[in-house]
Specification:
Oligomer: single chain
Protein name: MIP18 family-like domain-containing protein
Number of strands: 3
InterPro entries: Fe-S_Maturation_MIP18, FSCA_dom_sf, MIP18-like
CATH topology: GMP Synthetase, Chain A, domain 3
Organism: Rubrobacter xylanophilus (strain DSM 9941 / JCM 11954 / NBRC 16129 / PRD-1)
Pfam families: FeS_assembly_P (PF01883)
Shape: globular
Strand order of the largest sheet: 1-2-3
């Protein structure tokens, strides 16, 4: 039976993408801004950000976002869009991430 592709499933897969400088995943850091499922899951659009426009790992993170989403059975294309609107800030982190950083 084919698994239903949901925002939650995509978000869970994106937990495998870790910011190498901070050591936490993009979901916990609040860097995943939007997930949209199209064409019964064959196309997935992910809008994400980085902690800084000057992030040296930006290309690597972008490639990992695409790779992780494409690894979901049934997904054929990924539109991974990097944005800085709004600019990321530490208040966007999950409660667990804030605790990790002592905020």
């Amino acid at each position: 039976m084919k698994r239903l592709i949901s925002e939650e499933l995509v978000q869970d897969r994106l937990r495998n993408v870790v910011d190498p400088e901070l050591g936490l995943d993009l979901v916990e850091l609040g860097l995943i801004y939007d997930i949209r499922i199209h064409d019964e899951g064959r196309r997935v659009a992910v809008t994400f950000s980085l902690t800084s426009p000057m992030c040296p790992a930006g290309d690597q993170i972008h490639a990992q976002v695409e790779s992780e989403v494409l690894s979901i059975e049934g997904v054929e294309t990924v539109d991974a869009r990097l944005t800085f609107e709004p600019m990321w800030n530490p208040d966007m982190m999950s409660p667990a991430a804030k605790l990790f950083f002592g905020r």
